[in-house]
Design brief:
single chain, 553 residues, alpha+beta, SH3 type barrels, MetI-like fold, 3 domains, 6-stranded antiparallel beta sheet, 4-stranded antiparallel beta sheet
Amino acid sequence: MRQWFKSGDPWIWLIGGGLAISLIMVIGLLTLIAVRGFGHFWPSPIVSTTATTAAGETRQVLGVMVRSETLPAQRVREAGQDIPADQELVTRHLIKVGNRDLNGRDFVWYLDSALGELNYPEGALRIERREWGNFYGFGRALERGGQVAARGENLWPQLQEAIARANELHQRIETLERVEIGGINSKLEALRLERRSLELRDVSGQALTAAQADLRARQAELDRRYEDIQAERRALMEESERDVLIAETAAGREVRIALNNIVRASRNNAMGLFDRIGFYGHSIGEFLSGYPREANTEGGIFPAIFGTVTMVLIMSVLVTPFGVLAAIYLREYARQGVILKLIRVSVYNLAGVPSIVFGVFGLGFFVYLLGGTIDDLFYPERLPAPTFGTPGLFWASLTLALLTLPVVIVSTEEGLARIPRTIREGSLALGATKWETLWKVVVPLSAPAMMTGLILAVARAAGEVAPLMLVGVVKLAPSLPIDGEFPYVHLERKIMHLGFHIYDVGFQSPNVEAARPLVYATALTLVMLILILNLSAIAIRNRLREKYRAESD
């Protein structure tokens, strides 16, 4: 046994076991997040049953069984429910009954003993709405312009066609509002700023008269375009509002649902396997490419994905040159001494500073000081409304660049230190200057280490939340930071971020049960996004390593 320990084999097995446990924990965590997150989009069967209340009344229940749990009966009694004294354990079920506009809540707990026989009617509908969440019930008729257009067996196929047409109209209306009307509003704001600029410059005489006439003509043209677009929008709205679905709840209550409020309708109990798979893939696609709604508890997360990727890319562009140049100076040019040691210690300690401290610094220095100065110098006509003197994309990226700068510096320095001295001496012996040796020999060979620093920086920056809450990330951004309007990349705009979206949905949502699966799905999306960014950087690093290894051979 002593010889076995001396051979080192136990430590190899210990390291292997630790690695295996770590992999199992990581894979298990990702699997749990994936099942609880993306499992939400699977079309679960719609259950129909009866529930007996404490007063002895019987009511119809229609919805989706979310989960079940077994609790000590005492906890249920403390919650105010009547349980027999001899019963020790109680099973209860959480059913998503939807119809929040009718019932006031769309998730209800029912005791197993209070439920009747479970049925799965094929005609039960699940209707996802843009407002008030899901509706569960039965379709009775489709009205078009006040006249019944379909009922009975013809209702379902015509309803699907009508929903597709309503969604197309809704998309056209959104395009008009976001692109056309948004562009006109931007140009009107630019005209207002031009007038304000004329006032600040105290322009007078013939030049002022000509400038005002030009501004009036341009505004009149924009007003005409705005009226034309508004007329087109009103026509589309009237067309989208003419179709109405007449549905019935489990309790027999008739409900009228405008089709322009319906995202999709499905008969989950009548679906086959391939229909379910297709529905599942379509739902995940809409989650990743759609916009949030209903206080972020419904809809998609595309603005958060877009904001996260944009911010990380800008951060990478900012941090890489500064970190690499700082490391090159510290390693190749700075005189070795006490001051240099203090600088290195400061850089190492900077990597351990809590991220919220960087957020406070970014808010005070970048936003208020630099942003306020930029507004005073370049955007006086916009004041007192700030342009760069308010949290935005650029300041969030710059704060993250400062946060991850020590990582890039340390990694680059380590890469420069690993380059053998003989390579430098050989280059100098062949007649190259120190500058040529550094930039044509040393830096290319240390490029993989620089990429390693960038990989670590991206991994940390993409998951940060605390500093971003102070310098540019918001709950809901009205527009993306990149669009077709000049200058195309709007660094002053606020953005959404996946990390902050998880925090907001998980801890500030008014509907906890509806938000729970979205927290898991968004968390998995963030993990996968970080993985994709890191794998891309790793592929570039490996390519550089192989390239310079081949050249050195």
